[in-house]
Structure of LacI family transcriptional regulator:
Amino acid sequence: MKKVTIQEVAKEAGVSPTTVSNFFNDRLNHMRVGTKQRIEKAIATLGYVPNQAAQQLRTGKTPMIGLLVPTVANSFFGELAVEMEQAAKEQGFRIILCNTLQSASNERDFWFGLHALGVRGVICSSALVTVEELEEYVKMGLCVVAVDEKPCEHLPPSVDFVSIDHKQSIRLAVDHLVELGHSSISYIADFSNTTFSRRSKAEGFLDAVASHGLRDCHLVMPNHSEGTPRFSDKELAELGRTAVSIILSEHPDTTAIVTFNDMTALGAIEALKERQIAVPERISVVGIDGISVGELLSPTITSVRQPLQMSAVKAIASVAEQLDRGRRQRKDIIIAPELIVRKSSAPPPRCNIDTLSPHPGTNDRPSPDENIVTARINQK
């Protein structure tokens, strides 16, 4: 089948080839509506398909947006990537997905590799990139949006930030449990606590329990040998399992657990089940993120949902705006979380606290070589 040329489209539309070229390269400011409609009709009639490779050679740009995440082996980032792809498609872009695997060198290679491919818009969810590196990437001509994570409190002036309100997400979880009647709440955090989102959540927990005047609450942070943030679903679930051992051993009065994400909540629930401790009849569990797997478990997980679709739409729109109009002063776009009440939370048991202990014969005490950090919160 003969390939339709731009000259044939121009002839069919009754315009010059230059006008058709302007149409395909979005130079539409001075083009009449009737002219655009004739070109669109000619394209549809002839079945013309533009040569994107040739367009990229002429402009030095590509309709691609880079997306850097730690790993899509983490369900949160997997679902975020899907939403980004859909939002990008609606704006006429496609996503190049880059799994950094929490490696600073991998991440830097991706930044330069994307630039070499002609990509000019990059969305990153990274705690590894430095402010100096972001400034360098902006000087290279990249339009950058940080999502969910950032290396410091103050980003470079032209780097937008799109994020859930992490402190508010924990506040919603604690408020929900307090309304149910809980006063002894343990929060499972990551020992490294090096990412912006995880630090914010831990701070949010401390603020929330203090505002309620709760005295018997605990920040539980299981350590691991590498000392680096855990991101894969398997690692996060294992963290929840380890933390439950600590909670039952060190804080047996706990009637509710909040975790910094849903996969950790899943691990915690499984560990409680293995010890024949009923959820939520004896201990309630609330996660953060609202990923879809939480709806498939038994019990389904009460969680604070991060509106990933909205985050994706805002991030893609920010990149598109910068690519179209040029960089401008930074925008911080903070999105409100939403509490989703399911089956893993309920009022605390009306019984002696000893009933929370596991059945005889189970071993809930952490192994001697386990490095554990816990913090007790005492309201003076």
